[in-house]
């Protein structure tokens, strides 16, 4: 039995081993991903991002618990968690913290948690994360939660993997709009104000609403006989429009979690109903394909052109004997 077959058969040890292979981008890992690929495409990928300490891990823990429980209208789901921690690769403190906090889920066969510390390039991190989601997807996990610390491009790249992205805020981080990264807001499908047991929730919510309104106006302002008038845009009747809802939670107490799960389900249904699910998947696959083609062509180029040839070309380029375009044409000939 191949490693991929063992994963499809539901063997957890094989799953853990394959995740390591994929994280290291080994040949065996790639071969297994090829084998598993036809079995992917079912899972709901949910990204959770936000500033450090806003309570993402606590929230992931709770979201996982609630998906496991199921409701009258929703069967219990199998849940995988990938905690991406691009911070210090030395201490691993946050990773350890995540494990401890997620102990509520320990022993549940329907849950698999994997922490990943940064190795190599940030691009590599996104690629490894993509591979890991494929493994979980093929292994039959219905929901895959991906936690990243919202700090930069790598997190945005990882968020692009997800069907639904939660952006987590907390009161008191500086309640002005400046504190809320516009780039992060752009990727939000659902805004969560966690730690809503803390003072300042109203300010945070107001700031978020203002930001949202700028991005998705719910009031149209127009001039009528020289006077400014405003009308409400009927968002409920524009099914194609998704306005990110703002959900308040207290992750440490599980407050607001049923509502958050409803919002997640609603967003999934919205994506499916509008065709956005397919559009997002296609856009993501296209980006993945482009990256792979670039990498493959570059690798091929390096095997056909020697270092000496490249050096010679660079020399001509430097001495203005050839232009960059002419150099490329010559090298590729
Ligand atoms: N009062 C309060 N504290 C919370 C809440 N959610 C989380 N915390 C606490 O906030 C701290 C940080 O929580 P984490 O879940 O580790 O936050 P995080 O965003 O995952 O942190 P990093 O991964 O390090 O960025 C912990 O001490 C939690 O117990 C909440 O809703 N209310
Ligand atoms: Mg965390």
Q: Can you characterise this structure?
A:
- The structure is a single chain.
- The chain is of the alpha/beta class and 333 residues long.
- It contains 13 helices and nine strands.
- The strands form two sheets. A seven-stranded parallel sheet has the order 3-2-4-1-5-6-9, with helices on both faces. It has a two-stranded antiparallel ribbon with strand order 7-8.
- Strand 2, helix 5 and strand 3 form a beta-alpha-beta unit.
- Helix 2 crosses helix 3.
- The two termini are 45 Å apart.
- The site of magnesium ion has 5 residues, from helix 4 and helix 5.
- Magnesium ion binds next to helix 4 and helix 5.
In short:
This protein is an alpha/beta fold and 333 residues long.
On the 0 to 100 scale, the average pLDDT is 84
Helices, by number, come to 13
> If strands are numbered along the chain, what order do they take across the biggest sheet?
3-2-4-1-5-6-9
Biggest sheet descriptor: 7 strands, parallel
Helical proportion? 40-55%
Instruction: Using the alpha-carbon principal axes, give the shape.
Output: globular
Please compute the radius of gyration using only Cα atoms: 23 Å
Return the structural class. alpha/beta
Strand percentage lies at 15-25%
- Topology, number of strands: 9
- Distance N terminus to C terminus? 45 Å
Written as H for each helix and E for each strand, in order along the chain, the element string is HHHEHEHEHEHEHEHEEEHHHH
Question: What compounds sit in this structure?
Answer: guanosine-5'-triphosphate, magnesium ion
Q: Uncertain spans, ≥5 residues at pLDDT below 50?
A: 88-100, 175-179
């Amino acid at each position: 039995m191949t490693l991929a077959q063992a994963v499809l058969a539901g063997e957890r040890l094989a799953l853990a081993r394959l995740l390591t292979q994929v994280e290291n981008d080994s040949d065996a890992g790639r071969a297994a991903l090829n084998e598993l690929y036809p079995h992917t495409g079912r899972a709901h990928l949910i990204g959770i991002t936000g500033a450090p300490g806003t309570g993402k891990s606590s929230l992931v823990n709770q979201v996982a618990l609630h998906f496991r429980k199921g409701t009258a209208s929703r069967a219990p789901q199998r849940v995988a968690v990938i905690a991406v921690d691009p911070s210090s690769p030395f201490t691993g403190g946050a990773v350890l913290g995540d494990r401890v906090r997620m102990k509520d889920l320990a022993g549940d066969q329907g849950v698999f948690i994997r922490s990943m510390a940064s190795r190599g390039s940030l691009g590599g991190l996104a690629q490894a994360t993509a591979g890991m989601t494929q493994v979980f997807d093929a292994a039959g996990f219905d929901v895959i939660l991906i936690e990243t610390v919202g700090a930069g491009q790598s997190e945005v790249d990882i968020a692009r993997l997800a069907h639904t992205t939660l952006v987590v805020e907390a009161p008191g981080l500086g309640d002005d709009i400046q504190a809320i990264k516009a780039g992060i807001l752009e990727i939000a499908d659902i805004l969560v104000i966690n730690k809503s047991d803390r003072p300042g929730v109203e300010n945070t919510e107001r700031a978020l609403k203002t930001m949202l309104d700028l991005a998705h106006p719910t009031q149209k302002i127009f001039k009528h006989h020289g006077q400014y008038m405003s009308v409400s845009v009927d968002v409920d009747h524009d099914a194609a429009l998704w306005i990110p809802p703002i959900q308040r939670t207290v992750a440490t107490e599980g407050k607001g979690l049923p509502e958050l799960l409803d919002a997640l389900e609603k967003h999934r249904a919205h994506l499916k109903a509008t065709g956005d699910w397919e559009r997002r998947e296609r856009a993501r696959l296209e980006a993945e394909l482009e990256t792979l083609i670039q990498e493959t062509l570059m690798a091929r180029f390096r095997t056909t052109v020697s270092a000496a040839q490249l050096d010679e070309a660079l020399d001509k380029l430097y001495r203005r004997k050839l232009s960059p375009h002419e150099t490329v044409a010559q090298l590729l000939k």
